[in-house]
Design a protein that fits this description.
The protein is of the alpha+beta class and about 90 residues long. Helix content is about 25%, strand content about 35%. The termini are far apart.
Length: about 90
């Protein structure tokens, strides 16, 4: 399988500053693996969204978009489950 380019929305860095260090480390391990496997075991496709997916990391969620044509993944949010689906 060809590798995907993984990129971050600028606001994700702000998300990381708000999270405990242990959560950031666990999230980054999962994100690093997305380049080789964009749809890992346990990933959930979000309803009403063509290219959005979610990975669970404890009480936190990584929400990302996959562009299979361009082989790119954009990390959109890394937030607590109570906050991730709220409108900004």
């Amino acid at each position: 399988m060809a590798s995907y380019l993984v990129d971050f929305k600028p606001s994700v860095h702000k998300d990381f500053r708000r999270l405990p260090k242990s959560v950031v480390e666990r999230a980054m391990k999962r994100i690093e693996k997305l380049g080789d496997e964009p749809f890992p075991h346990g990933v959930t496709k979000l309803e009403n969204a063509d290219r959005l997916y979610r990975i669970v990391v404890g009480d936190y969620r990584i929400v990302y978009e996959v562009d299979t044509q361009a082989k790119q993944i954009m990390i959109l949010y890394v937030r607590h489950r109570r906050d991730v689906y709220r409108a900004p």
